[in-house]
Amino acid sequence: MSLELRQQLKLSQQLVMTPQLQQAIKLLQLSRVELLEVVQQELMENPILEEVQYQEDEQTARDVHEEANRKTSLNSEEQSMIKNADWENYLGEFSSSSKQSVHHERETPEEMQSFEARHSSKPSLEGHLFWQLQLQDFSEEDMVVGEEIIGNLDSRGYLQATSREISESTGAEQEQVKRVLKRIQHFDPIGIGSRNIQECLLVQLEALNEDDPVLTSLVKEHLEDIEKNRIAPLLKKFKVSREYMQEYIEVIRSLDPFPGSSYGSEDVVYISPDIYVYKYEDDFIILLNEDGLPNLQLSSFYTGENQLVKDKKNKQENEYIQEKTRSAVWLMKSLHQRQRTLYKVMQSILKFQKEFFEHGVSRLKPLILKEVAEDIEMHESTVSRITTSKYVSTPYGIFELKFFFNSALSMDGGGHVGSESVKAAIKKMVREEDPKKPLSDEAIAAILKENLDVNIARRTVAKYRMALDIPSSSKRKKFF
What we know:
Elements: H1 19-29, H2 32-45, E1 49-51, H3 58-71, H4 76-84, H5 87-94, H6 99-107, H7 125-134, H8 140-151, H9 163-170, H10 174-184, H11 197-207, H12 213-221, H13 223-227, H14 232-238, H15 242-253, E2 275-280, E3 283-288, E4 296-298, H16 300-303, H17 307-312, H18 315-352, H19 354-359, H20 369-376, H21 380-386, E5 391-394, E6 397-400, E7 408-410, E8 416-418, H22 419-432, H23 441-452, H24 458-467, H25 473-476
Helix pairs in contact: 1-18, 7-8, 8-9, 8-10, 9-10, 18-20, 20-21, 23-24
Region (Disordered): 56-78, 96-119
Pfam families: Sigma54_AID, Sigma54_CBD, Sigma54_DBD
Protein name: RNA polymerase, sigma 54 subunit, RpoN
């Protein structure tokens, strides 16, 4: 079989995404914080792009200033006294600080200090423990062992290495490792460096001077029974009343099984809504949150009638300015299109979910992306991107736009109800139930069928309950 080279023509169609189109799609799915970062980065890199700075009308400002001066006008004698008064001596005699301290403060003003010097860093578990380790009367060998122990703690505060492994890495005896570990376990927080949950709780009981044998036995052998509320076998084994057993259980539940979790590295994230929906009389008003978003424009220095700049520009500079101008114009168009799409999607959601905005979560209807996409004549992928990481402030709280899209459950009357409405109903039932007789999944399903005419299976109730982070009825049961 011989090989040969041939030339042939082939006509085909393919989708080619330009960099500008990729940027526009990317801007759709960015959150508000991410969008601000992208815009600020473009402002730094593109000299053609600049932010419009709103300035107060000079005549208005002058009128306000003159009116303020008129109301607080002083006669010539008072003005002369203010001008010639020795304010430094006056303050030195009557202020709470002396002249020397005032002079010292002027030498080191707060504005001259760095940002890091005026703000403390967030404490970490490792740093907190190392600080306590330095305060102990440990020998150099014990310090090495202590540092190795602290370096092998996980985010919960549990030790992830055995005494033998620490002994081999530090060259210390295992008895020395155990002795140092026992002291570290009594650092703040108590129980840090434990190997398991039983050891952690026993260390905390020891710190509380709780030496009751029943309490110790419950921690060592019956934590699973307490977790699953299997109380009857415990009453039979320890021969105590239900009231005493409840007191023991309350003591155990007051302990911290994960002492290191309070020093987690995660920061609190504050949500700024992208949209506000207000009710005005019998209608709703949609407002886009433009606060903090820069108002962009093209720089007149490069694009205007600046003859000096034009005379000095060569071919390469012209090409650079044209490229940056196209980039700036496309960014502004993309931002406008993003806001326009966001507004249209919110309008459509308000149209489909108006009963939610009138009455709350219990009236949330089933909704899918396709319905909104068809309503605003856009593709489903566009709706999916614009609803990602976007939040709306409603009369009933702040919700992600994805929240309004939920599956449907059939009703006896032939209609449908949204799954989020059913979840809200389940959450309300659990909140109002009798702690001594919590509702089972079967009972919740029966109540939903009776009150809301919803056909829902027990396993579906269990799935929704787990999604809401609600424990089972046996774990919710309380003994008083």
